[in-house]
Write a structure and sequence with these properties.
Elements lengths: L25 H9 L3 H14 L1 H14 L11 H12 L1 H26 L2 H10 L2
Helix pairs in contact: 1-2, 2-3, 4-5
Length: 130
Amino acid sequence: MNTRTNQPWSPSRLYRDTDNAMMMGVCAGIADYFGLPRWAVRVGWVFLLFAFTFMTVIAYFAMGFVLKPKPLDLYANAEDERFWREARVDPKRSVGDLQSKYRHIEKRIRDAEAFVTSSEFKLRRDFRGL
């Protein structure tokens, strides 16, 4: 269960994409998970089907039955969806982006604290009080 939203699903998990499915939504789900075009995953799956017919069919149907369908409200908003797609594809870059963002926020907080505790702030507050 997702403790942040009390939902039994996770945005970092692989799901079947039944909205864009041709059969069971396995290829669409893989494409959604890795941020690839659906047609490319389907072409790859067809190539595997010709190369390894029996195993590909077994794998497809196994994934079709094991993977849960993608929930409609998996992401809170478009920004949340973009974040999770990038985090799945390139986690190191995502961590670096988050660190940079938090460093910037921390600097802004330090600057605000420095201003609020400065004598200039106290002087301006005293002038407004007149």
